[in-house]
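Quick check before the chapter quiz. The format below is the same one you will see on the exam, so make sure you can read both the input and the output lines.
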Amino acid sequence: MRAVIAIRQIQRHTGAVRNVIEHCKYLKALGYETTIIAERYNREILDECGADFVRIMRWPIKGAYRRTWFDKRVQHWLRANPYDLFFSHGDSHSNDILVMHNCVRLHEETCGTPELDVAAFHDSVISAGDYRALITNSKLMADDFQQRYSVPNDKLRVFYQGVDTSLFNVSDKEALRCKARRELQLPETSKVVGLITSGDFTKRNVRFFLEVAGFLAANTSFPIEFLVVGKSNSTRFADQMSVNGLQSRIRFIDPVPNVHELFHALDLHIFPALLEEYGRVVLEGLACGVPTIASDNVGVAELMQDHSVPEVISGYN
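Here is the expected output.
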């Protein structure tokens, strides 16, 4: 049996890519051989997936047509090759399984961003309704798709993503804490509060995190440092950091493959996103034994509220 997965990039350790890795392992356990179709890739990630790989050459001109081009090439490959099961991760139309990771229109409304290139394409993919099932990461997503695109309830499936507890756990916590703090040059004696994400600092509400950091820095008697992980432009927060006296207390770093080690450097994880369709990092932090504060605009908070695991911020501006 052959399963095919289409996703434009399998290059960075984003939540969507980790989801693809999990799909590959699960499909293998069910007896499927897997083919991944993508534009950009990381050989180590492909090896972890244990999948065959088909590379689509990227359309050279930036813009909305890049997505249309990828979709056309995927559909051409599907017509020319036999397969039993097809998963689109939102980057192509599917008459089988459609897996969505983002609510782009809700993102535009919630975060006040201009229309994104991907928006019209997602409208088309979801509205087409050719899929047998549309998988979302949370009820937040399912509700938005049902209201916005009139997706039939019997086609919607909410699958909460899990955590790899072989990586995210409390084993050797003290040793990993020392290692992470040494590599990050964080003092052993300081308390460390962090926000760990893949990027998009507007969506993840870094500005609010810095407000909290400023308050804590001004109102705590013990040494405290702050860490923000994510690929985005931090220079726009320079004035806010200066006003709150955070320049020497906070550091911004790009995402790293060994994100599980970063959690052990923290004493508190705050995830105050304006919108997060799931937010696996919240569960990953908890699995590492790190107290976590999460916004109720985060999909995973649905699980947290049901089981009363972390504190959930409700109704903040």
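If your answer matched, good. The mean pLDDT is 93.
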